[in-house]
UniProtKB/TrEMBL annotation:
Lineage of the organism: Eukaryota, Metazoa, Ecdysozoa, Arthropoda, Hexapoda
Protein name: GDPGP1-like N-terminal domain-containing protein
One Gene Ontology MF term: guanyl-nucleotide exchange factor activity
SUPFAM superfamilies documented for this protein: HIT-like
Sequence ranges assigned to domain GDPGP1-like N-terminal in this UniProt record: 10-176
Entry GO CC: cytoplasm
Natural source organism: Danaus plexippus plexippus
Length: 308
């Protein structure tokens, strides 16, 4: 069955709601979490359950660590966690596949995240049955870009954490987020400095050094994005990535922004009670797991903005 672009978000929401209401595969239920905004910019969200009920992350040793079938991976999840399978048809059309199909060719899968950050938090798993490690390939990057362009909805975001950059499962996946609020990385325009071709960097007034690509349509710019990611891989540099719609630097048009952050490797196991910085936090969306830390972070950011 073909799926038109405008139907993607509705399909994700419908399937997620069904699983959330009718099964027990979520580690906790998502209710009305407290939210705060700092200067109408930074988005803080309280989710105490994720801090204590999520699956224990694994220790990662290298950003090029091979896939290990004996460790947790997404081939082991319950069938109730599967929202849908699909393959890319011509153009921007998704072809939905039966959940009970004969697995005779590569396909992509959308799963719930059993420990969601927010409502509709899901996982896009390219070529699920191929058992690829958490290393972006050119094909998976192309799929992520097409998925974003096809959806035609500003609420949709995709996130990626490499190994040693807070990825907790070594099986290729992107995080799917549906968030109604604008995020800081989507509106930085005047402070984008050209680097080369379609690559920009954010001026130092943004709290974290950020690379930014603008994508109007699928084309040669994907090669430029992948070259940067490939460089990080060859140099063993951990990195995070966030795909979102935002304001164009060069025009008044809305474009797809691909934000990339190289970072120091995190060699320790992700701690539940720590402030773990990954793709969401780098975008200006800060999930917090205790009421005390929510208040401390809220006033801490206010003080930072006041002085800097």
């Amino acid at each position: 069955m073909g799926l038109n672009p405008s139907e993607v978000i509705n399909l994700i929401k419908t399937k997620w709601d069904e699983i959330h209401s009718n099964t027990n595969v979520f580690r906790y239920k998502i209710a009305n979490e407290e939210k705060r905004f700092v200067n109408n910019k930074y988005y803080l969200q309280l989710n105490p359950n994720r801090g204590v009920k999520r699956r224990t992350p694994e220790q990662m040793e290298n950003i090029s660590q091979p896939f290990d079938k004996n460790k947790f991976n997404f081939c082991k999840v319950s069938k109730d966690e599967v929202m849908f399978h699909f393959k890319q048809d011509k153009g921007m059309i998704l072809k939905l596949l039966s959940l009970f199909m004969n697995k005779i060719y590569s396909y992509h899968t959308v799963l719930i995240n059993a420990s969601p950050i927010n409502k509709y938090h899901s996982l896009l798993c390219p070529f699920l049955e191929d058992c690829l490690p958490q290393i972006i390939t050119k094909d998976s990057l192309m799929l992520a870009v097409k998925f974003m362009l096809m959806a035609e909805n500003r609420d949709l975001r995709l996130g990626y954490n490499s190994l040693l950059a807070m990825a907790s499962v070594n099986h290729l996946h992107f995080h799917i987020f549906i968030v109604e609020n604008d995020l800081p990385v989507e509106t930085v325009v005047s402070k984008c400095i050209p680097v080369k071709g379609p690559l920009y960097r954010f001026e130092n007034t943004y709290p974290i050094p950020t690379f930014c690509f603008e994508i109007g349509s699928v084309g040669t710019k994907i090669d430029d994005v992948y070259k940067l990611l490939e460089y990080f891989l060859h140099k063993n540099i951990a990195h995070n990535m966030f795909l979102t719609r935002g304001n164009s630097v060069a025009s008044n048009n809305e474009v797809l922004r691909i934000l990339i952050w190289p970072r120091t490797s995190c060699l320790h196991i992700k701690q539940f009670d720590a402030f773990n910085i990954a793709c969401c936090e780098l975008s200006g969306w800060l999930p917090v797991y205790s009421k005390l830390k929510l208040c401390l972070l809220y006033f801490g950011i206010k003080i930072f903005i006041f002085f800097f």
